[in-house]
Amino acid sequence: MAALTPISRKPVSFYVPVVAAAGGIAGLFVGTAQGSGLLGIVIGAALLAVLAFAMTQMTDNEKPMRWGLMALFVLAGGLLAGPGGLILGLGFGWFFGWFTYWLYEGRYRAKLVPYLTPMQVLWHYTFRIICGAILVFLITPILVVMPLSFNAQDFFTFTPEMLRFDPAGYSLKHYRDFFTNDDWQQALRNSVMIAPVATLLSVSFGTLAAIGLSAEHVPFRRAIMAVLISPMIVPLIISAAGMYFFYSRIGLQGTYFGVVLAHAALGIPFVIITVTATLVGFDRSLTRASANMGADPVTTFFKVQMPLILPGVISGGLFAFITSFDEVVVVLFVGSAGQKTLPWQMFTGLREQISPTILAVATILVVISIGLLTTVELLRRRSERLRGMSPS
Amino acid sequence: MSELKGSGQQTADAPTPEDAFHETATLDSREQTHAPGAAPDGPVLAADGTPLKRSLARALRMQKIRALALIAPLLIFVLLTFIAPIASMLFRSVENEIVSDTLPETVVVLNDWDSAGGAPLPESLFEAFYVDLFLAQEQKLHTRLGTRLNYEQTGMSSLFRKSGRQVGKFDTDKYTDQFTALDASWEDPASWVAMMDNKSNRTALPFTARSWDRWVAYLNTEGDDPAKEDIEDFLFTTLYLDLAKTGGKGASDARITAAGSAVGDFETVSLAEQFADAEKDWADPEIWRVIQTFSPKFTSGYYLNAIDMQKTPDGIEKRPENQQIYLMLFKRTMFMSLVITFSCIMLGYPVAWILANLPSRTANLLMILVLLPFWTSLLVRTSAWKVMLQQQGVINDTLVWLGLVADDARLVMINNQFGTIVAMTHILLPFMILPLYSVMQTIPPTYLRAAKSLGATNWTAFWRVYFPQSVPGIGAGSVLVFILAIGYYITPEIVGGNTGTFISNRIAFHISSSLNWGLGAALGTILLAVVMLLYWVYDKIVGIDNVKLG
């Protein structure tokens, strides 16, 4: 896509109306905040049309014009809405400066193949905007939860103080509640006690089995695989119900051990999948070479095979960990009040007494997931490097 | 390290014992005789002198055993902690032992009662039921049975509860009085223990012996000594009934024979009347027909219930209109899962396309936006949607602020189907994007350009060239999303309200609140069957080995 397309300046009749339209949309927001949306649209459109025309026709010097526009917007923002307006003005100023010249100089075509028709160019950018909107949809909830967790009020919504970036609107009290409240602390302790043990169980059993499964001649491989993957496929509520009946019959219901076993079973598919995927690229002649040089199978496993598949094992373990750490349905049925985990506490919180502490916990969990995601991604790349594939 | 690319492929091509095995087979058939270390006309020999073929077969067998030995611990673990519970749930959906366990005598009499022919209720039925109910209420089992039968016929629960309270106050103490008047030693429990140890006594008094055994078993579970507990009225009743029938012939105990000749003059108590006095419903044959219908050890009743049918004494029929909810719930679950799958395709396709067509550096960055929600706790995402969608939530506030919606007419976007669909589409979207992305990565972009250079419009090129190649990705993603959606519980529970809940919420309700475990298990089994079918389809399309994470 690196085709070099010659770009040329566009006529006034093209870029001024487009910038005006964008100005109108921005004007709607500013106008609504100031009292009249309709007036905002008209003023915004007119203002931006004039500015765009003036900027491009007065001089060919782009940089000072854009800086000037930014300063103008920051000033206007500050006058209209205080400190919050400054930041907003900066954003608007930068965007409109960039947008005007992007259109005026025809830069929007620079990276596209030269033969596209205007409609195709329009579609190209519309499509990108659609994709952007979907990606925003994917992460909005997370973006909304994080700021709301610093809310000074017990509301689940943005207060006017927060929108004005008034420090009084923010506080850490929900975090304080999380770290001082006994219920939450007990839940955290339970989660931390259950998840690692369950992970250890699924990783140790799962890695062995994955090595067995990737041997060359395994009878009933498909059937065994189907059984081992099934905990991931069977709806959680069914697993939970079955385990509830069965574990209460053998006396494991409501015990720590029962919850750990249940979570280990749920984590196993993830270990199997990631470790078998790593083993696909494992060069089996290495084990033969090791045996040839006199190593026994245990030494071969720990010194040759394990270091190579370790990234897969660890990321499988992280998947198993997050499965157990996030799991609520099974623990709801198999556990009793003594095994109340963090997700369970959140679930009751969401269903019964709604408390914004949930949002603080949610933020902490998001941070943890970002950490885990980064680790898994780094491990994946390392594993691909080890296996001699170029990381993608 | 790129020169090492494709070492996996080399591994696959590396010689394996299996190849050697086939080679030996061909060598054998050609009767190769020049192999080193082999007798001139014998088979090829391995270093230790065994024929190479056999030695290889053994090596191969060892390899298989080793692989299975590695798998075995996990397989056993999964079978015990996961498959066995599922199997026990399947069993529970047909199991119905509670009736025959609690009312063993009654069930026997009911089996002979011709309910359809309109035969009158036999007195022996009430006699058997009297013993069963008395023992059941001592063990506090009658309320559980009442609850069980209440699923089939309302009113059963209170009928059993009330009768349980009254059964101890029946007029059967008349028998006790008459027997003790005859011989005071009848009151002595120790004498009963001795009497019931004797085989001929037991044969002479079969009903009494059976009831005595159940009584003793109950006392033992309570830790009481049967030789010290008072003899209850029901035992005298069974004694009277036995004696009235057999006269105590063959008993080795003289006391029994003496009583046997006296019982003819005893004042009798009609248990049918006693029951009718206590609760007049017992005189209604309908009640008995329900118990008769549900007396077998296994029942299809729960399954019929799960599809809005019911088992009545007159056969299988539909439930009353106002009680039909399960078919509607199944349909709704299916419908909403389809809508969610479809929304995921619509939203996931463009994103997967752009991820597959952008330069890999940018694509990796954007991929983080897809993977981040995938890694975020389900409850975090669900609570986020609760924050976003509620009436005082972020979206409504924004709309009101923009003046698109009046403050008193805020949109209802949560606790209904819309809320569930939005939240679940968001939660399951990564499961659609990832398989789509991995399929789209393999489609060469040159095909599209080739189509366009041959004169296809953008749309034709996409629809006729690109789309058909991406169908496997859509298939894989859709089945995965559908499987996951159909069994969802947490999200519908929190954002679904009444109209946006799934069948799984009903299953949870039956297991944790209404305690109708059989029905919960039957609903679960039906859901499981649907999921297993889809799992099989998924296996056919994608192969379970090809599931990728992240």
UniProtKB/TrEMBL annotation, chain A:
This is ABC transporter permease subunit. Pfam families: BPD_transp_1. GO terms for biological process: transmembrane transport. Keywords: Cell inner membrane, Cell membrane, Membrane, Transmembrane, Transmembrane helix, Transport. GO terms for cellular component: plasma membrane. The keyword Ribonucleoprotein does not apply. It comes from Thalassovita mangrovi. InterPro entries: MetI-like (IPR000515), MetI-like_sf (IPR035906). It comes from the Bacteria. Residues 188-376 form the ABC transmembrane type-1 domain. Belongs to the binding-protein-dependent transport system permease family. It is a multi-pass membrane protein. Gene3D superfamilies: MetI-like. Signal peptide: none annotated. It is found in: Cell inner membrane; Cell membrane.
Automatic annotation (TrEMBL), chain B:
Residues 1-46 are annotated as: Disordered. One of its GO terms (biological process) is transmembrane transport. InterPro entries: MetI-like, MetI-like_sf. Keywords: Cell membrane, Membrane, Transmembrane, Transmembrane helix, Transport. The chain crosses the membrane at residues 67-91, 334-356, 363-380, 418-439, 471-490, 517-538. The keyword Membrane applies. One of its GO terms (cellular component) is plasma membrane. It holds the Pfam family BPD_transp_1. It is a multi-pass membrane protein. It is found in: Cell membrane. It comes from Thalassovita mangrovi. Belongs to the binding-protein-dependent transport system permease family. CysTW subfamily. This is ABC transporter permease subunit. Its main location: membrane. The keyword Transport applies. Residues 330-538 form the ABC transmembrane type-1 domain.
